[in-house]
Amino acid sequence: MTISFEIPQDIERELRSGAGDLNRDAKEVYLMEQFRRAKLSHRQLQDALGLSFQETEEILKRRGLGQDVDLAGSSTGRDRLRKARPQ
Question: Which domain of life does this protein belong to (predicted)?
Fold first, then answer.
């Protein structure tokens, strides 16, 4: 799918003066928004961006969409579940 849109030339010049791939950035932002709206799964986002799971997580966190998992808390919860499970 190809998506295009127009922006004023002065804004385009300013954006192009900074380093980066504007097409890639626009694609990333659009797909992240679809993920935020729950229209894409994590796997679909990962595939669409051509990234690994970890790379996708890094981008999500950088854009404020990551799931902050408390590893200590999840470890404690896991231990509680193990103790509660019948042997």
Answer: Bacteria
